[in-house]
Specification:
This protein is about 20% helix and about 40% strand.
């Protein structure tokens, strides 16, 4: 008996789907590497020519509140001896104040569920940007990490201390932070960030300026 063309096409599709699933299954069994903590800012200071910047954070931790809220703090600092004239340190704080759960609660990607602060420390002073956005938290299996996917956020200048160069104006933010659960370290980083934002932090100590991306 000859197979029908429809049955043959269905069989080929299933075989192709099985082949495509093999790398994914192997990845899940082996445990894939988590992404880096990296965000992308698009500055609209010049609305005719938006400029993108990339920031990769090297230190990222989080803690939780009894209410279930998350506090995620990330930091990146200029390496000692680095001749880069850009920022000394950059911080980002995300307060995620409710947790949408796809399949159980309605998730609207335009919904605001987090407040964000971004602080840039330079030799000349400190700039703080703040705003709101949508952040989706995920806990990978067999890991103590929290992956916070920043779907979209908007930032604007909140304060300036000293005479720093304000380079971003209104901006859009997206990206991902991979945080380790460490309540004590999270509080320390947030305290350090708040001191800088208030003009009371030391100007020594470690990032590198957000570099334009292609």
């Amino acid at each position: 008996m000859m197979n029908s063309p429809l049955r043959e096409r269905t069989g080929r599709r299933r075989a192709a789907a099985a082949v495509m699933l093999i790398p994914l299954l192997l990845c899940l069994l082996a445990g894939c590497r988590l992404p880096d903590s990296e965000v992308r800012l698009v500055s609209y200071k010049d609305r005719e020519f938006p400029e993108p910047y990339g920031i990769r954070f090297t230190d990222c931790t989080y803690r939780t509140e009894p209410t279930g809220d998350y506090h995620i703090v990330a930091r990146v600092a200029r390496e000692p001896g680095d001749s880069n004239s850009g920022p000394i340190t950059q911080y980002m704080h995300i307060h995620l104040f409710w947790k949408p759960r796809p399949g159980r609660t309605f998730v609207n990607r335009s919904t605001i569920d987090a407040t964000l602060r971004y602080v840039i420390v330079t030799d000349a002073g400190t700039v703080e940007y703040s705003g709101t956005g949508f952040v989706y938290p995920k806990h990978p299996r067999r890991s103590d990490k929290l992956i916070a996917e920043i779907e979209s956020a908007r930032l604007k200048v909140a304060s300036l201390v000293g005479e720093p160069t304000e380079m971003l104006g209104d901006s859009r933010l997206s990206g991902v932070l991979v945080a380790t659960f460490d309540p004590s370290r999270t509080l320390d980083l947030l305290h350090e960030m708040n001191l800088h934002a208030a003009g009371q932090g030391a100007t020594s100590g470690p990032p590198a300026e957000p570099k334009p991306t292609e």
